[in-house]
Fold:
Amino acid sequence: MRFDVAIAGGGPAGSACALSLRTHAPALRVVELESSQYERPRLGESLPPIARQLLEHLGVFDAFRATASAQTFGTAAAWGRPRLVENDFVFYARGDGWHIDRAAFDAMLATEAAQRGATRMSGVSVRDAEHGRDGWRVMLSNGESLSARFLVDATGSASLATRACGAEVVAVDHLAGFGRFFDEGGDAADPRTIVESFADGWWYTAALPNGKRFAACMTDVDVAREMNLSDDAVWYASAATMPIIGPIIAGASKPGPLVGRSAESRYAEPPAGDDWLAVGDSASRFDPLSSQGIVKALRSGIFASYAIGDVLMRGDLRGIARYREFIRGEFASYMEARAKYYSEEQRWSDREFWLRRSG
Structure:
């Protein structure tokens, strides 16, 4: 139970880090710890065209194509106007995007990492971590422990970064999503991600592989509480008021349970130390409107592996400094794009949700 790198979390960021380490620094002993068996549906279903470049870099694109995925040729949004505006991927040099079965996608990445030499531990989570003179002692939910020279927080919640490493999570909004999966997706002929804004936020829906569909309402936590959006009847009634997405949801059947999740934009400060770092949503989280969550996770996992290799193989901390600046710069660029896009919706500029994003 002695490793060079312990990665807490088996999502795209953690697995990308493990995969890249096995290529970039194969002498390092890597363990990836995942609390689940990838048996439950996961949120985050869109892969934009740029994802192909990252999957090919990791050497897993062929494995990805063997999993369940639905090719999509663009997105459409009723944003700033009542009609849909197309954003076709045909104008992008990198080709088409995909809607994915997220649990199957995450499991594929973790399996590929294990096949390339990373130790995989599923059904076990990190309960705590203590820093000592020789590195980290990591306590697991099964009562065991392991030691590692370097610790990676890929939990998505930044729980290790804040609890064990002294980072702070800084939130810039309190966005939340209330959504559900449908086993039969209704209008499956339209594979696009469709976004439609309303007075207190926005809705989106996407057709998934095997005829499934996901739909969610995105608004701030306090607004959702006032709307009582966590109530099934209220959720369906609100969906029915949406001219475009409402009929799509009405045509879907076999709904799963309504699930609420935080989707706030936030970042960890600092995102890395001399012998630890955060990746994916643990380092920073973007608004789902950006459709960049998985791409950001893969990219941060790859860049993190270079910094870790520099430290453990050469004792060079400059890679850690570059990684910190990369995470901070990426979030700053995202905030500029976020402000620009939200400012394009002026129909409800006096409502609290939109006022909070007007600056």
